[in-house]
Design brief:
Chains A, B, C, D, E, F: GO terms for molecular function: peroxiredoxin activity. Chains A, B, C, D, E, F: Pfam families: CMD. Six copies of one chain form a homohexamer. The N and C termini of chain A lie close together (9 Å). By secondary structure, the first copy, chain A, is an all-alpha fold. Chain A is globular. In chain A, helix 3 packs antiparallel against helix 4. The first copy, chain A, has one domain: AhpD-like. Chain A has six helices and no strands. Chains in contact: A-B, A-C, A-D, A-E, A-F, B-C, B-D, B-E, B-F, C-D, C-E, C-F, D-E, D-F, E-F. The interface between A and B is medium-sized, with 30 and 30 residues.
């Protein structure tokens, strides 16, 4: 597993646990609801994870992008498909999305190597 | 056809024509590229239009939302599916997306009535 | 009651009902959670409503601003206090917040007249 | 003078006066500073107004766009120049800037007619 | 004092000094005005710092969040109170605020250790 | 050449090549169009690069800011001129632009040393 992937996962787990331990009911429910959002429904999880990815890209949140790239990878989404999600994000969100696309591409490549 | 739908389409067409008549090459190519982005590819147009819709919602652009709702409607996307796109947008983008969801729901309902 | 206040409330109620009738579980829970967020807790509702107002202003969501102005009004927040919330929003968010401040000021004045 | 131009100016003046009458020192100073920002300096006002315009477009603030279009018009900026500002805004900010470009184009055309 | 706190403060001071040394009048006045914004007024500094914190979170500016966390810490705001500010930010701004909440929580914990 | 400048350029080149190698037509054309946007036209490249810089600042994209600072440096823009671009960005975009201004100032100073 690459360093970048491990570091992202470890920090994310550690701090999510810390936040949840603080016992704020609204935050706990939001974290819960976040998980439910991507469950199978009228749309398959596979499609919803791409929706989460493109939203994270246009809002330019690198950590959210990494998280949804992991989920897209788990869902068996192919590299040409991921590139088309990147394309929508770059057209809708403009060239300010490009630096985030560079980091997303790098993270995606690392996920591919670590299957 | 409802007034809201007609007005949106008429203003959009009129002003797009006006902008293109100004003959700025970069803008003309961007408009062109925008159309290509949603063409069938590794992902079907149907999925891409939902990607366009969710991006427009989290970026809170009502006119972009209307445009992609029309395209989703043409692609035969169902109301429960559209609601799940709305759900992703509201969770990722927060409660500031709610007012845009109200206007999106209204526009979607008008599109359904006008099939 | 002023027309602007009535129209905002009527449209908001009508469309919230419509959205909730669509029975998407994630959206229903988010609407619920939204209400809980501003309940008395470690911080009083009064403070939380100002937090909601300033967040809505820097994110430039006019309908969210109106909603929180109503809540601030119910909480007995004074005009000089509201102006200080506006000031924080304008300094943090910049002059692009000014047009939203104009509409917020107008709505606040209407709320005062309708006590 | 077109209705759209008159309405924008009248509402802007009326509400700016109302806000300033509330006598919040931070807001008053920010309004003042805003005016100073575009004064002749190392860069001419002409350039600074285009900087204000492009910033307003990528941040998608229609009223800010109108304001800077008026200033650009006063500075004798030509239509092909304004279109190139629009082009930068659309490329940097993406297709979500297009609906704002439609309204900007319309306002610019009205300003031209009213010279 | 933790490394993270020291580094943040040192870089912030060094670069603020450098920027102010460049003697741009608008920037100098804005820095000044920024300080005035949080002074005691109709609202206490304590409340205003929470307004600054929540605004920084929904706008997803990590450095601004750190700065206001320091000020909230100085104002004696408790951990449950800070968590309620985080809750408002996450509900209003959505799950894209979560990664910023992780970093905010970590910084807050370090501030607590260094009292 | 400073480490920061070298690292930025190396990573940017490497990942742009990687993205282009993936052969997504929309992304390739957008990259191309991005270059054309800043070509001499009704407005000189010099002005357009300042438009790109101010847009990147208000949208708070550090990598985009670095890129346009390099281009502004190549165009012979002076430090007082760059500071006035920073001033417009800070007034329009608010104090959340300040942390990005700190990093921009540092990068600009490094570019000056490396002429």
């Amino acid at each position: 597993m690459s360093d970048q992937i491990n570091e992202f996962r470890a920090y994310r787990s550690k701090m999510n646990e810390r936040i949840l331990s603080a016992d704020n009911l609204v935050i706990k429910r939001l974290f819960n609801l976040d998980t439910n959002t991507y469950a199978e429904g009228a749309l398959p999880t596979r499609t919803k994870e791409m929706l989460g990815l493109v939203s994270s890209m246009v809002l330019r949140c690198d950590d959210c992008v990494k998280y949804h790239l992991e989920k897209c990878h788990e869902q068996g989404i192919s590299t040409p498909e991921v590139l088309e999600v990147f394309a929508v994000a770059n057209i809708v969100g403009g060239t300010i999305v490009i630096p985030h696309t560079r980091r997303a591409m790098e993270y995606w490549d690392e996920l591919q190597k670590n299957t």
